[in-house]
Amino acid sequence: MNKALYGYLSATSGALIWGIVPLYYNLLYKYAFIEIVAQRVFWASLIYIFLFVIQKRLLEIGDALSSLKNIILFLVCALLISANWLFFIFAIHHGQLMQSALGYYIYPLFTATLGYFFLGERLEKTTKIAFFFAVMAVFLKGSVLSNFPWIAISMATTFAAYAIIRKQLPVKSDTGLMIETTLLMPIALLYFSWQSSVGTPLFFGGEIIGLILAIFCGLFTIIPLYLFHNGNKVLPLAVAGLIFYLNPTSQMIISILLGEDFSLVDIVVFGLIWIGLIVQFSPMFFNSAVLSKKH
User: Fold this and answer.
1) Which of 63, 141, 192, 222 has its CA 20 to 30 A from that of 176?
2) CB atoms closer than 10 angstroms to residue 274
C-alpha cells in the first residue's frame, strides 16, 4: 500500500473511531464514570504489556524510566491523562458531549499557547488570531452562566498540559502510553478492591458480557491513538491537524443526535472556532500549494 494512502487511512480511521466511541461509552450509562475509567486503565495496561512482551520491547521501558526526572514527568502525564479521561466520561454520562467536542476543538490552540509561554516556542500570528477566536468562543459560552463550559476548558487544559510535558520525553507514543497506563494500574486495582469489599461485581456485572465490555474499554483507548499517531508520522502537519478535527466534529454531531441542546449561542461558538481554524491552517495549505507548483 502507498505510504501516503496508509497515512490517510490510519489517521482518518483513528480520528473517526475516537470521535464515535462516545456512542459505546453511552451504552455504559448505568455504571459509574470512575469505574469506566478504571476499566480503561486496567485493560489498556494489560494489552500494552502483552504487546510489549510479544514484541520484545520491554527494554524500552527501562530506558524511558532511566532518570528520576523522567519518572516524575511520566507520573504527571499519567495523572493528567487520567483526569482528561475522567472529564471525557463524565461529559458523556451527564449529557455534555458538546462540551467534550468544544474541548477537543480548542485543545491544539491551548497547546500552542502553553508551548509559547513554557517552552519558548514561536507562536505564529495566525495561531494568535485563532486563539483569540477560541477565547471569544469560550467567553461567549461562559456568558450563559447556567452552562459555563468548565468541562471543555478542563479537557482542553489537561490534554494540552499533557501534550507539552510528553514533548519533553523522547519516547515513542505507544511506549509513553504503556508507561502511563501501567503507572495508573495500582489506582485501578485499588478501586476494584473497594468494589469487591462492598460486594460489587467486577467488570460491569461480572458476567461474560460485562468482561467483554470492559476489555473493549481498553481497546477503544488504544486503537484510535495508535492509528492516529501512525498516520501523523507520514502526513504533512496541516493535513494531520485537520484530520484530527474529525474527532470533535463527530462528537458534536453525535451530541445533537443524542438530543443535547444546540442553541444559537452554540452555533456562534462553534462558528468562531471554525473561523479560527481556517485562519490557523490556511497558510499551511497555501505554502504547500506554492511548493507543489514550483516542483
Assistant:
1) 192
2) 15
pLDDT tens-place values along the chain, 295 residues long: 677 788 788 888 988 998 999 999 999 988 999 999 999 999 999 999 999 999 989 888 988 998 999 999 999 999 999 999 999 999 999 999 988 988 888 887 787 777 777 777 777 787 778 778 877 887 777 666 456 788 989 999 998 888 888 888 888 878 888 999 999 999 999 999 999 999 888 888 878 999 999 999 999 988 888 887 777 777 765 566 677 788 888 898 899 888 888 888 888 888 888 888 788 767 655 555 444 455 5
d(CA 10, CA 125): 31
The grid coordinates listed for 295 are: 516542483
What is the 8-class DSSP label of residue 144? S
Buried b (16+ CB within 10 A) or exposed e, 23-60: eebeebeebebebbbbbbbbbbbebbbeebeeeeeeeb
Record the cell numbers describing residue 146, joined without a space. 447556567
* C-alpha closest to that of 245 among 109, 142, 124: 109
Please check whether residue 178 is in contact with residue 166, taking contact to mean a CB–CB distance below 8 angstroms. Answer: no
Task: State which H helix or E strand residue 120 sits in.
Answer: none
Q: Provide CB contacts within 8 A for 30, sequence distance 6+.
A: none
Query: Structural domain of residue 31, as residue ranges?
Result: 3-294
In the chain, the amino acid numbered 167 is K
Angstrom distance (rounded) from CA 143 to CA 264: 13
Maximum distance among all alpha carbons in the chain? 69
Cβ atoms 28, 213 nearer than 8 A: yes
∠ Cα 263 103 237 (to 5°) = 120
Alpha-carbon distance 49 to 167, whole Å?
23
Q: To which H or E segment does residue 262 belong? A: none
